[in-house]
Amino acid sequence: MASALNQDLSPSIASSGINLVDPAHYAQHGYPHEIWTWLRQNKPVYRWEQEGALDYWVISKHADIQTISTHPRQWLSGPRLTISHEAEQDMSAFPPTLIQLDPPKHGVFRKLVAHRFKPKALARLHHDIEAIGKEIVDKLIEEADTGECDFVKEVSAPLPIAVIGWILGLPKEDWPLLFDWTNKIIGATDPEFHVPGTNPQEAAQATMVELFTYFTKLVEEKKKKPDDGLVSLFTQLKVDGKPLELMDVMAWCLIIVIAGNETTRNGTSGGMLAFIENQDQLRKLQANPSLLPSAVEEVVRWSSPIIHFARTAAEDGEIRGQKIAKGEAVALFYPSANRDEDVFEDPFEFRIDRNPNRHLGFGIGEHFCMGVHLARLELTVAYKHLLPRIEEIELTGPVSRLQSSLVGGVKHLPIKYRIKPAA
Ligand code: HEM
Protein backbone atom coordinates (compact mmCIF):
# COMPACT_ATOMS: atom_id res chain seq x y z
CA MET A 1 0.00 0.00 0.00
CA ALA A 2 1.51 3.32 -1.07
CA SER A 3 1.67 6.02 1.58
CA ALA A 4 1.39 9.78 1.08
CA LEU A 5 4.24 10.17 3.56
CA ASN A 6 7.95 9.84 2.89
CA GLN A 7 7.59 10.60 -0.82
CA ASP A 8 11.15 11.92 -1.03
CA LEU A 9 12.52 8.36 -0.80
CA SER A 10 13.41 6.40 -3.93
CA PRO A 11 10.20 5.66 -5.87
CA SER A 12 10.40 1.94 -5.14
CA ILE A 13 10.74 2.50 -1.38
CA ALA A 14 8.07 5.20 -1.27
CA SER A 15 5.59 3.02 -3.16
CA SER A 16 6.33 -0.10 -1.07
CA GLY A 17 4.56 1.43 1.93
CA ILE A 18 7.15 -0.17 4.24
CA ASN A 19 7.67 1.25 7.69
CA LEU A 20 11.03 0.41 9.28
CA VAL A 21 9.48 0.00 12.74
CA ASP A 22 6.54 -2.14 11.66
CA PRO A 23 7.03 -5.60 13.24
CA ALA A 24 5.01 -7.31 10.49
CA HIS A 25 7.57 -6.34 7.87
CA TYR A 26 10.32 -8.23 9.68
CA ALA A 27 8.23 -11.41 9.94
CA GLN A 28 7.30 -11.32 6.28
CA HIS A 29 10.49 -10.10 4.63
CA GLY A 30 13.38 -10.21 7.12
CA TYR A 31 15.77 -7.26 7.30
CA PRO A 32 15.14 -4.47 4.73
CA HIS A 33 18.81 -4.25 3.70
CA GLU A 34 18.01 -2.74 0.30
CA ILE A 35 16.26 0.16 1.97
CA TRP A 36 18.93 0.68 4.61
CA THR A 37 21.60 0.64 1.88
CA TRP A 38 19.70 3.26 -0.10
CA LEU A 39 19.28 5.42 2.99
CA ARG A 40 22.97 5.13 3.92
CA GLN A 41 23.94 6.24 0.45
CA ASN A 42 21.28 8.90 -0.16
CA LYS A 43 19.66 10.11 3.06
CA PRO A 44 21.70 8.87 6.01
CA VAL A 45 19.76 10.97 8.52
CA TYR A 46 16.19 10.72 7.34
CA ARG A 47 12.99 11.93 9.00
CA TRP A 48 10.49 9.09 8.78
CA GLU A 49 6.91 10.28 9.09
CA GLN A 50 4.22 8.00 10.44
CA GLU A 51 0.49 8.40 10.45
CA GLY A 52 -0.94 8.12 13.98
CA ALA A 53 2.47 7.44 15.52
CA LEU A 54 5.65 9.27 16.49
CA ASP A 55 7.83 10.56 13.62
CA TYR A 56 11.48 9.69 14.02
CA TRP A 57 14.90 10.12 12.41
CA VAL A 58 16.36 7.01 10.78
CA ILE A 59 20.06 6.78 11.61
CA SER A 60 21.63 4.28 9.25
CA LYS A 61 25.38 5.04 9.25
CA HIS A 62 27.92 3.37 11.54
CA ALA A 63 29.67 6.69 12.37
CA ASP A 64 26.41 8.41 13.36
CA ILE A 65 25.26 5.57 15.62
CA GLN A 66 28.67 5.74 17.25
CA THR A 67 28.42 9.53 17.77
CA ILE A 68 24.93 9.33 19.27
CA SER A 69 25.69 6.34 21.52
CA THR A 70 28.82 7.98 22.93
CA HIS A 71 27.03 11.23 23.86
CA PRO A 72 24.44 9.93 26.33
CA ARG A 73 23.72 13.33 27.91
CA GLN A 74 22.61 14.75 24.55
CA TRP A 75 20.95 11.56 23.25
CA LEU A 76 18.81 10.17 26.04
CA SER A 77 17.67 6.57 26.50
CA GLY A 78 14.59 7.80 28.33
CA PRO A 79 11.66 8.20 27.88
CA ARG A 80 11.51 5.63 25.06
CA LEU A 81 13.82 2.75 24.19
CA THR A 82 12.17 1.82 20.91
CA ILE A 83 9.96 3.48 18.32
CA SER A 84 6.51 2.07 17.78
CA HIS A 85 4.55 2.14 14.53
CA GLU A 86 1.45 2.74 16.65
CA ALA A 87 0.47 5.38 19.18
CA GLU A 88 2.81 5.22 22.20
CA GLN A 89 1.55 3.50 25.36
CA ASP A 90 2.10 4.82 28.84
CA MET A 91 4.56 2.42 30.48
CA SER A 92 5.30 4.64 33.48
CA ALA A 93 3.83 2.07 35.88
CA PHE A 94 6.82 -0.16 35.13
CA PRO A 95 10.26 0.55 36.55
CA PRO A 96 12.83 1.72 34.00
CA THR A 97 15.54 -0.89 33.52
CA LEU A 98 19.28 -0.18 33.20
CA ILE A 99 19.05 0.27 29.44
CA GLN A 100 16.46 3.06 29.88
CA LEU A 101 18.46 5.01 32.46
CA ASP A 102 20.53 8.08 31.66
CA PRO A 103 23.64 9.54 33.30
CA PRO A 104 24.42 9.96 36.09
CA LYS A 105 22.04 7.28 37.47
CA HIS A 106 22.90 4.86 34.67
CA GLY A 107 26.59 4.63 35.56
CA VAL A 108 25.86 4.16 39.28
CA PHE A 109 23.42 1.32 38.60
CA ARG A 110 25.54 -0.40 35.96
CA LYS A 111 28.55 -0.50 38.27
CA LEU A 112 26.54 -2.39 40.89
CA VAL A 113 26.26 -5.49 38.71
CA ALA A 114 28.67 -5.13 35.77
CA HIS A 115 31.53 -6.82 37.64
CA ARG A 116 29.56 -10.09 37.58
CA PHE A 117 29.71 -10.05 33.76
CA LYS A 118 33.44 -9.32 33.43
CA PRO A 119 35.68 -12.07 31.98
CA LYS A 120 37.29 -12.70 35.39
CA ALA A 121 33.94 -13.37 37.08
CA LEU A 122 32.72 -15.42 34.12
CA ALA A 123 35.86 -17.53 34.23
CA ARG A 124 34.47 -19.10 37.40
CA LEU A 125 31.28 -20.02 35.52
CA HIS A 126 33.03 -21.09 32.34
CA HIS A 127 33.05 -24.75 33.25
CA ASP A 128 29.31 -24.82 34.08
CA ILE A 129 28.29 -22.88 30.97
CA GLU A 130 30.42 -25.19 28.86
CA ALA A 131 28.67 -28.17 30.49
CA ILE A 132 25.20 -26.67 29.84
CA GLY A 133 26.10 -26.02 26.19
CA LYS A 134 27.70 -29.40 25.66
CA GLU A 135 24.69 -31.23 27.09
CA ILE A 136 22.37 -29.41 24.66
CA VAL A 137 24.60 -30.01 21.64
CA ASP A 138 25.26 -33.65 22.62
CA LYS A 139 21.51 -34.26 22.55
CA LEU A 140 21.39 -33.01 18.97
CA ILE A 141 24.32 -35.26 18.04
CA GLU A 142 22.73 -38.29 19.73
CA GLU A 143 19.53 -37.68 17.81
CA ALA A 144 21.49 -37.59 14.55
CA ASP A 145 19.91 -40.85 13.41
CA THR A 146 16.70 -38.93 12.75
CA GLY A 147 18.88 -36.16 11.33
CA GLU A 148 16.15 -33.54 11.30
CA CYS A 149 15.15 -30.90 13.79
CA ASP A 150 14.14 -27.32 14.44
CA PHE A 151 17.53 -25.87 15.42
CA VAL A 152 15.89 -23.07 17.41
CA LYS A 153 13.93 -25.49 19.57
CA GLU A 154 16.82 -27.89 20.12
CA VAL A 155 19.79 -25.55 20.54
CA SER A 156 19.38 -21.78 20.19
CA ALA A 157 16.47 -21.37 22.60
CA PRO A 158 17.41 -23.80 25.41
CA LEU A 159 21.03 -22.61 25.69
CA PRO A 160 20.45 -18.99 26.82
CA ILE A 161 17.42 -20.01 28.87
CA ALA A 162 19.51 -22.49 30.83
CA VAL A 163 22.41 -20.07 31.22
CA ILE A 164 20.23 -17.16 32.37
CA GLY A 165 18.15 -19.40 34.67
CA TRP A 166 21.32 -20.72 36.18
CA ILE A 167 23.16 -17.41 36.68
CA LEU A 168 20.05 -15.80 38.17
CA GLY A 169 19.77 -18.71 40.59
CA LEU A 170 16.31 -19.92 39.52
CA PRO A 171 15.23 -23.48 40.34
CA LYS A 172 15.62 -25.61 37.21
CA GLU A 173 11.91 -26.46 37.03
CA ASP A 174 11.18 -22.73 36.58
CA TRP A 175 13.52 -22.20 33.61
CA PRO A 176 10.75 -22.81 31.03
CA LEU A 177 8.97 -19.75 32.47
CA LEU A 178 11.81 -17.62 31.15
CA PHE A 179 11.16 -18.91 27.66
CA ASP A 180 7.48 -18.12 27.91
CA TRP A 181 8.00 -14.61 29.33
CA THR A 182 10.56 -13.49 26.75
CA ASN A 183 8.45 -14.82 23.88
CA LYS A 184 5.43 -12.97 25.19
CA ILE A 185 7.24 -9.67 25.85
CA ILE A 186 9.59 -9.47 22.85
CA GLY A 187 7.18 -11.32 20.56
CA ALA A 188 4.06 -9.55 21.85
CA THR A 189 3.15 -8.53 18.31
CA ASP A 190 3.77 -12.00 16.87
CA PRO A 191 0.65 -14.11 16.21
CA GLU A 192 2.40 -17.28 17.52
CA PHE A 193 2.87 -15.75 20.97
CA HIS A 194 -0.15 -13.52 20.96
CA VAL A 195 -2.48 -13.85 23.94
CA PRO A 196 -6.07 -14.05 22.58
CA GLY A 197 -8.35 -11.20 23.60
CA THR A 198 -5.53 -8.70 24.29
CA ASN A 199 -3.67 -6.15 22.23
CA PRO A 200 0.14 -6.60 22.10
CA GLN A 201 0.90 -3.88 24.66
CA GLU A 202 -1.63 -5.27 27.13
CA ALA A 203 -0.22 -8.75 26.63
CA ALA A 204 3.35 -7.55 27.25
CA GLN A 205 2.22 -5.66 30.36
CA ALA A 206 0.32 -8.66 31.70
CA THR A 207 3.42 -10.80 31.22
CA MET A 208 5.55 -8.26 33.10
CA VAL A 209 3.11 -8.40 35.98
CA GLU A 210 3.43 -12.21 35.97
CA LEU A 211 7.21 -11.92 35.94
CA PHE A 212 7.23 -9.40 38.80
CA THR A 213 4.90 -11.58 40.88
CA TYR A 214 7.23 -14.54 40.44
CA PHE A 215 10.40 -12.55 41.22
CA THR A 216 8.87 -10.78 44.25
CA LYS A 217 8.35 -14.19 45.83
CA LEU A 218 11.80 -15.40 44.81
CA VAL A 219 13.43 -12.27 46.24
CA GLU A 220 11.89 -13.05 49.65
CA GLU A 221 13.23 -16.60 49.48
CA LYS A 222 16.72 -15.43 48.47
CA LYS A 223 16.79 -12.92 51.34
CA LYS A 224 16.23 -15.79 53.77
CA LYS A 225 18.58 -18.17 51.99
CA PRO A 226 21.14 -16.28 49.88
CA ASP A 227 23.19 -18.05 47.26
CA ASP A 228 25.69 -17.15 44.49
CA GLY A 229 22.97 -16.26 41.95
CA LEU A 230 22.25 -12.79 40.64
CA VAL A 231 18.82 -12.51 42.29
CA SER A 232 20.54 -12.84 45.68
CA LEU A 233 23.04 -10.18 44.63
CA PHE A 234 20.21 -7.83 43.59
CA THR A 235 18.67 -8.12 47.07
CA GLN A 236 21.99 -7.11 48.67
CA LEU A 237 22.74 -4.06 46.48
CA LYS A 238 22.94 -0.63 48.10
CA VAL A 239 23.05 2.90 46.69
CA ASP A 240 24.22 5.64 49.10
CA GLY A 241 24.09 3.05 51.86
CA LYS A 242 20.41 2.24 51.28
CA PRO A 243 19.15 -1.08 49.88
CA LEU A 244 17.51 -0.93 46.47
CA GLU A 245 13.76 -0.45 46.36
CA LEU A 246 11.83 -3.57 45.34
CA MET A 247 10.97 -1.95 41.99
CA ASP A 248 14.67 -1.49 41.21
CA VAL A 249 15.34 -5.13 42.10
CA MET A 250 12.51 -6.10 39.73
CA ALA A 251 13.99 -3.93 36.99
CA TRP A 252 17.27 -5.83 37.31
CA CYS A 253 15.51 -9.19 37.07
CA LEU A 254 13.58 -8.01 34.02
CA ILE A 255 16.57 -6.68 32.09
CA ILE A 256 18.63 -9.83 32.61
CA VAL A 257 15.74 -12.10 31.60
CA ILE A 258 14.92 -10.07 28.50
CA ALA A 259 18.37 -8.90 27.37
CA GLY A 260 20.05 -12.24 27.80
CA ASN A 261 17.60 -14.50 26.01
CA GLU A 262 16.22 -13.48 22.64
CA THR A 263 19.44 -11.80 21.56
CA THR A 264 21.64 -14.83 22.11
CA ARG A 265 18.97 -17.17 20.76
CA ASN A 266 18.77 -15.21 17.54
CA GLY A 267 22.50 -14.73 17.23
CA THR A 268 22.96 -18.51 17.50
CA SER A 269 20.23 -19.22 14.92
CA GLY A 270 21.31 -16.40 12.60
CA GLY A 271 24.85 -17.75 12.69
CA MET A 272 23.74 -21.28 11.90
CA LEU A 273 21.71 -19.99 8.98
CA ALA A 274 24.77 -18.09 7.75
CA PHE A 275 26.88 -21.27 7.92
CA ILE A 276 24.20 -23.21 6.01
CA GLU A 277 24.06 -20.56 3.32
CA ASN A 278 27.85 -20.14 3.20
CA GLN A 279 29.19 -23.67 3.54
CA ASP A 280 32.66 -22.64 2.36
CA GLN A 281 32.90 -20.71 5.66
CA LEU A 282 31.76 -23.77 7.63
CA ARG A 283 34.48 -25.87 5.96
CA LYS A 284 37.03 -23.12 6.58
CA LEU A 285 36.22 -23.15 10.29
CA GLN A 286 36.34 -26.93 10.45
CA ALA A 287 39.78 -26.81 8.85
CA ASN A 288 40.97 -24.05 11.18
CA PRO A 289 39.20 -24.07 14.58
CA SER A 290 41.36 -21.20 15.80
CA LEU A 291 39.11 -18.94 13.71
CA LEU A 292 36.21 -19.52 16.11
CA PRO A 293 36.55 -16.20 18.03
CA SER A 294 36.52 -14.13 14.83
CA ALA A 295 33.71 -16.33 13.45
CA VAL A 296 31.62 -15.49 16.52
CA GLU A 297 32.15 -11.75 15.92
CA GLU A 298 31.21 -12.15 12.28
CA VAL A 299 28.05 -14.02 13.29
CA VAL A 300 27.03 -11.08 15.49
CA ARG A 301 27.82 -8.55 12.72
CA TRP A 302 26.00 -10.65 10.14
CA SER A 303 22.90 -11.46 12.18
CA SER A 304 22.75 -8.18 14.19
CA PRO A 305 20.03 -9.51 16.53
CA ILE A 306 18.98 -6.07 17.82
CA ILE A 307 17.21 -4.17 15.02
CA HIS A 308 16.95 -0.79 16.65
CA PHE A 309 17.03 1.19 19.86
CA ALA A 310 15.86 4.79 20.16
CA ARG A 311 17.33 7.91 21.69
CA THR A 312 15.69 11.30 22.33
CA ALA A 313 17.45 14.65 21.85
CA ALA A 314 17.98 16.41 25.22
CA GLU A 315 18.69 19.71 23.42
CA ASP A 316 18.58 20.98 19.85
CA GLY A 317 21.45 19.28 18.06
CA GLU A 318 22.60 18.01 14.72
CA ILE A 319 23.90 14.88 13.09
CA ARG A 320 25.77 15.00 9.78
CA GLY A 321 24.62 18.63 9.42
CA GLN A 322 20.95 17.74 9.87
CA LYS A 323 19.26 19.71 12.66
CA ILE A 324 17.37 17.59 15.17
CA ALA A 325 15.20 19.46 17.65
CA LYS A 326 15.00 18.90 21.40
CA GLY A 327 12.54 16.10 22.16
CA GLU A 328 12.76 14.48 18.70
CA ALA A 329 13.49 10.77 18.49
CA VAL A 330 16.21 8.98 16.55
CA ALA A 331 16.23 5.26 15.74
CA LEU A 332 19.64 3.56 15.60
CA PHE A 333 19.49 0.72 13.08
CA TYR A 334 22.36 -1.58 14.08
CA PRO A 335 22.02 -4.04 11.14
CA SER A 336 22.42 -1.11 8.77
CA ALA A 337 25.59 0.10 10.54
CA ASN A 338 26.90 -3.45 10.29
CA ARG A 339 26.66 -3.36 6.48
CA ASP A 340 28.15 0.13 6.16
CA GLU A 341 30.37 0.24 3.07
CA ASP A 342 32.53 2.96 4.67
CA VAL A 343 33.55 0.61 7.46
CA PHE A 344 33.40 -2.95 6.13
CA GLU A 345 35.01 -4.36 3.01
CA ASP A 346 32.41 -6.36 1.05
CA PRO A 347 29.85 -5.90 3.84
CA PHE A 348 27.40 -8.33 2.27
CA GLU A 349 29.90 -11.21 2.45
CA PHE A 350 29.91 -13.50 5.49
CA ARG A 351 33.63 -13.95 6.26
CA ILE A 352 34.61 -15.75 9.42
CA ASP A 353 38.13 -14.32 9.35
CA ARG A 354 37.03 -10.69 8.98
CA ASN A 355 39.65 -8.52 10.68
CA PRO A 356 39.16 -5.81 11.80
CA ASN A 357 35.48 -6.24 12.55
CA ARG A 358 34.26 -3.08 14.27
CA HIS A 359 30.61 -4.15 14.24
CA LEU A 360 27.97 -2.49 16.42
CA GLY A 361 25.95 -5.65 17.11
CA PHE A 362 26.54 -5.13 20.84
CA GLY A 363 26.07 -1.36 20.60
CA ILE A 364 28.79 1.05 21.71
CA GLY A 365 29.38 3.71 24.37
CA GLU A 366 27.38 4.24 27.55
CA HIS A 367 25.00 1.29 27.07
CA PHE A 368 27.43 -1.12 25.38
CA CYS A 369 26.09 -4.62 26.00
CA MET A 370 26.82 -5.58 29.59
CA GLY A 371 26.47 -9.28 28.73
CA VAL A 372 28.91 -9.18 25.82
CA HIS A 373 31.38 -11.69 27.29
CA LEU A 374 28.60 -14.05 28.30
CA ALA A 375 27.04 -13.81 24.83
CA ARG A 376 30.38 -14.56 23.17
CA LEU A 377 30.91 -17.49 25.51
CA GLU A 378 27.49 -18.97 24.74
CA LEU A 379 27.94 -18.64 20.98
CA THR A 380 31.41 -20.15 21.27
CA VAL A 381 30.17 -23.10 23.31
CA ALA A 382 27.30 -23.82 20.90
CA TYR A 383 29.46 -23.73 17.79
CA LYS A 384 32.59 -25.29 19.26
CA HIS A 385 30.95 -28.60 20.00
CA LEU A 386 28.65 -28.76 17.01
CA LEU A 387 30.26 -27.26 13.90
CA PRO A 388 33.32 -29.56 13.77
CA ARG A 389 30.99 -32.58 13.71
CA ILE A 390 28.74 -31.47 10.85
CA GLU A 391 29.24 -33.48 7.71
CA GLU A 392 26.21 -32.22 5.84
CA ILE A 393 23.57 -29.68 6.69
CA GLU A 394 20.70 -28.10 4.80
CA LEU A 395 17.44 -26.27 5.36
CA THR A 396 14.32 -28.38 5.02
CA GLY A 397 11.72 -25.64 5.04
CA PRO A 398 11.20 -21.93 5.22
CA VAL A 399 12.85 -19.94 8.01
CA SER A 400 10.08 -18.35 10.05
CA ARG A 401 10.83 -15.00 11.57
CA LEU A 402 9.61 -13.20 14.67
CA GLN A 403 7.16 -10.34 14.24
CA SER A 404 9.25 -7.72 16.01
CA SER A 405 11.07 -4.54 15.04
CA LEU A 406 13.29 -4.78 18.12
CA VAL A 407 14.83 -8.25 17.88
CA GLY A 408 15.38 -9.87 14.50
CA GLY A 409 14.24 -13.27 15.54
CA VAL A 410 14.38 -16.62 13.83
CA LYS A 411 11.45 -18.52 15.33
CA HIS A 412 11.99 -21.81 13.52
CA LEU A 413 15.01 -23.06 11.60
CA PRO A 414 14.15 -26.51 10.19
CA ILE A 415 17.33 -28.40 9.29
CA LYS A 416 18.49 -31.78 8.09
CA TYR A 417 21.99 -32.77 9.12
CA ARG A 418 24.52 -35.60 9.16
CA ILE A 419 27.10 -35.89 11.91
CA LYS A 420 30.67 -37.15 11.44
CA PRO A 421 31.87 -39.89 13.78
CA ALA A 422 33.77 -38.48 16.75
CA ALA A 423 37.46 -37.94 16.04
C1 HEM B 1 24.28 -12.06 20.86
C2 HEM B 1 23.78 -11.64 22.00
C3 HEM B 1 23.57 -10.20 22.38
C4 HEM B 1 23.45 -9.08 21.60
C5 HEM B 1 23.52 -8.99 20.09
C6 HEM B 1 23.24 -7.95 22.49
C7 HEM B 1 23.10 -6.64 22.07
C8 HEM B 1 22.95 -5.55 22.89
C9 HEM B 1 22.80 -4.19 22.47
C10 HEM B 1 22.76 -3.73 21.01
C11 HEM B 1 22.68 -3.41 23.58
C12 HEM B 1 22.44 -1.90 23.63
C13 HEM B 1 23.69 -1.15 23.42
C14 HEM B 1 23.46 0.32 23.27
O1 HEM B 1 22.36 0.85 23.48
O2 HEM B 1 24.47 0.98 22.95
C15 HEM B 1 22.74 -4.29 24.71
C16 HEM B 1 22.66 -3.86 26.03
C17 HEM B 1 22.60 -4.73 27.09
N1 HEM B 1 22.78 -6.09 27.08
FE1 HEM B 1 23.13 -7.24 25.44
N2 HEM B 1 23.22 -8.41 23.79
C18 HEM B 1 23.42 -9.77 23.77
C19 HEM B 1 23.47 -10.61 24.87
C20 HEM B 1 23.32 -10.22 26.17
C21 HEM B 1 23.40 -11.09 27.31
C22 HEM B 1 23.67 -12.59 27.28
C23 HEM B 1 23.16 -10.32 28.41
C24 HEM B 1 23.14 -10.70 29.88
C25 HEM B 1 22.54 -11.55 30.48
C26 HEM B 1 22.97 -8.96 27.96
C27 HEM B 1 22.72 -7.88 28.77
C28 HEM B 1 22.64 -6.57 28.36
C29 HEM B 1 22.36 -5.46 29.26
C30 HEM B 1 22.15 -5.55 30.77
C31 HEM B 1 22.34 -4.31 28.46
C32 HEM B 1 22.12 -2.88 28.93
C33 HEM B 1 23.43 -2.21 29.21
C34 HEM B 1 23.29 -0.78 29.64
O3 HEM B 1 22.25 -0.17 29.43
O4 HEM B 1 24.26 -0.27 30.22
N3 HEM B 1 23.08 -8.94 26.59
N4 HEM B 1 22.92 -5.58 24.29
Overall geometry: globular
Structural domain count:
1
SSE sequence, one letter per element: HHHEEHEHHEHHHHHEEHHHEEEEHHEEEE
Beta-strand portion reads 5-15%
Determine Rg (CA atoms, Å): 21 Å
Ligands, deduplicated: protoporphyrin IX containing FE
Strand order of the largest sheet: 1-2-10-7-3
Sequence stretches where pLDDT stays below 50 over 5 or more residues: none
* Named CATH architecture: Orthogonal Bundle
Largest sheet: 5 strands, mixed
| Total beta-strand segments | 14
Summarize the structure.
The chain has 423 residues and is an alpha+beta fold. It is built from 16 helices and 14 strands.
Can you tell me about this structure?
With 423 residues, the protein is an alpha+beta fold. It has a single domain, classed as Cytochrome P450 (Cytochrome p450), CATH 1.10.630. 47% of the residues lie in helices and 12% in strands. It contains 16 helices and 14 strands. Strand 1 and strand 2 form a beta hairpin. Protoporphyrin IX containing FE (HEM) binds next to helix 12 and helix 16. The site of protoporphyrin IX containing FE has 29 residues, from helix 12 and helix 16.
